[in-house]
Amino acid sequence: MVLKLHGFFFSTCTLRVATVLKEYNVPFEFVAVKLEEHGHKAPEYMQIQPFGQVPYIDDDGFVLYESRAICRYIAAKYRSNLAGPTLLPDVSTEVEKYARFEQAASVEAWNFDFYASTAAAELVYNPGYHGIPTNEVQAKKLIDSLNKTLDVYDQILAKQKYVAGDDITLVDLFHITYGNFLHTKGFINLEDEKRPNVRRWWRDITSRPSWQAVKDGLSPSS
Amino acid sequence: MVLKFYGHPFSTCSLRVATILKEYNVPFELIVVDVSKGAHKAPDYLKIQPFGQVPYIDDDGFILYESRAIGRYIAAKHRASGPALLPDVNTETQKYAKFEQAASVEAWNFDFYASKAAAELIFKPMRGLTPDEARAKELLESLENNLDVYDKILASQKYVAGDDITLADLFHISYGNLLHSAKHINLEDTKRPNVARWWKDITSRPSWQAVKGGVSSSA
């Protein structure tokens, strides 16, 4: 049975999963959860995803949520779909490469997305969807912290091509959705020439066909 | 060469790593990074950990930072000599996926709120700053709501990733303990009997008992 991806057509976390499904050429059916009707908080939805969050997948009966877990699962299960190197280092044959991958993944979570997702909430979701005005002081702190992280990224990316080493991995792709969200709205500049290595990296990862295929949103189809 | 552990005896992230080192009986030398004196922001330190954070390890020349990455590395490398806390990605892919799901929940639905609440209520006063009480209250409410969900999940399985304990359970201990012992949350609340059962189980493990009073070298 074809894999089902349940999410919002334009949600950052849903698009994160869709990007990786495209990388691995996994056919999937997108099942739209209706954000405007709070479909993710409906009792039937919360029977499956008890935190009331999107997305989740149903892979022929195997249900999984948390976008980064789903991406690791796709990379593990469909490893042989890729012509090129794996996006998830094999812990049993290359433990140090795997460790560096998990280090980069933790950095993406705690030093990038921690600020990026909260800033997105403060600057866009709160005023746009919840009727809560932006706390400008808080928003500035978050963007400043994110920019400090990006300055460190520039040092790291001066010595290696991607965030976990010289090979692209899932972790590079994890950055795209929230990075793109803030960059296209002008809150951060991932192509700032003062950070030439970040710029080089950003252009590289966002030019991949997988992201190009999903960046404008998903529609219910395989 | 014995593993070198650059951290702080009482830091939550150092305690997280130390617990896992103890699970596998990995001998280590603790080299204290004096964060109160800003040692983690010194140029020599930043050459190794460019974000200026603790801890990191030097395992016979292999440097690694981020406590949860270090935990996975230790569990993978020492698999043969300790409990199976990290499911095998190749031979038990679905179990591995559920582990990563639980680990992601720990990060985004537990620690996201717990660490920020601890920053407001515990670390700010330690630095002579005034906590933002309103913000702390919001954070704790979100954490409490998520613990209610944990109680539902733990009603039908023993641990957060399934019926076997994994690293994801252990990741919760250091911040959970920090807020629980300061009475900002109650992880033994009888209104959440499954969380209480789970919390008592994981915190009774010898690994946590060995480090909860502070990390020190073991070799």
TrEMBL record, chain A:
One of its GO terms (biological process) is glutathione metabolic process. GO terms for cellular component: cytoplasm. Residues 94-222 form the GST C-terminal domain. Keywords: Transferase. One of its GO terms (molecular function) is glutathione transferase activity. Its EC number is 2.5.1.18. Pfam families: GST_C (PF00043), GST_N (PF02798). SUPFAM superfamilies: GST C-terminal domain-like, Thioredoxin-like. This is glutathione transferase. It comes from Steccherinum ochraceum.
From TrEMBL, chain B:
It is an enzyme of class 2 (transferase). It comes from the Eukaryota. It catalyses: RX + glutathione = an S-substituted glutathione + a halide anion + H(+). One of its GO terms (biological process) is glutathione metabolic process. Residues 92-219 form the GST C-terminal domain. Its EC number is 2.5.1.18. The keyword Cell division does not apply. GO terms for molecular function: glutathione binding; glutathione transferase activity. GO terms for cellular component: cytoplasm. Residues 1-82 form the GST N-terminal domain. PANTHER family: GLUTATHIONE S-TRANSFERASE RHO. This is glutathione transferase. It comes from Steccherinum ochraceum.
